[in-house]
């Protein structure tokens, strides 16, 4: 791991005589090299936590507030919309050959 002061000095040496926009881009690219990506298990856990765990916390109260006919129908509808959106994201990811969400949006 690089000491923060050393990293700042590295960035300063990199961006000498650069325009502000170029300097920001260069610093961002250098910082992205230091970012560690999640592995497959951590990614699955994060998706599970984000979609399922929060839903489990809110569903009982939502069923009570929404009614026992409307709430399950809405839940199933939300399931299909989420699956369709995930399918679209995977297709775009395959077409452009990988990348992040901002890159896919661009």
Explain this structure.
This protein is mainly α and 106 residues long. It has 2 domains: 4-33, no CATH class; 40-105, no CATH class. It has 5 helices and no strands. The protein has helices at 4-14, 20-33, 40-66, 70-96, 101-105. The model has no long low-confidence stretch (mean pLDDT 75).
Question: Main traits of this protein?
Answer:
106 residues; 2 domains; elongated
What gap, in angstroms, lies between the N and C termini? Answer: 32 Å
Q: State the helix count.
A: 5
Which parts are unreliable, with pLDDT below 50 for 5 consecutive residues or more?
A: none
Order of helices and strands: HHHHH
Oligomer: single chain
Main sheet record: none
Proportion of beta-strand residues? under 5%
* Structural category: mainly alpha
Shape: elongated
| Percentage of residues in helical conformation | over 70%
The value of Rg in angstroms is: 22 Å
Summed up, the domain count is 2
> Quick one: how many beta strands?
0
Rounded mean pLDDT is 75
Quick description:
This protein has 106 residues and is mainly α.
Write the layout of secondary structure elements.
Elements: H1 4-14, H2 20-33, H3 40-66, H4 70-96, H5 101-105
């Amino acid at each position: 791991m690089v000491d923060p002061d050393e990293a700042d000095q590295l960035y300063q040496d990199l961006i000498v005589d650069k325009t502000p926009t170029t300097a920001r881009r260069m610093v961002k690219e250098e910082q992205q090299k230091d970012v560690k990506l999640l592995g497959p298990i951590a990614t699955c856990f994060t998706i599970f936590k984000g979609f399922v765990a929060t839903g489990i916390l809110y569903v009982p109260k939502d069923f009570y507030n929404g009614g026992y006919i409307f709430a399950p129908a809405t839940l199933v509808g939300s399931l299909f919309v989420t699956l369709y959106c995930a399918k679209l994201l995977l297709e775009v990811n395959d077409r452009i050959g990988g990348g992040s969400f901002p890159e896919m949006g661009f």
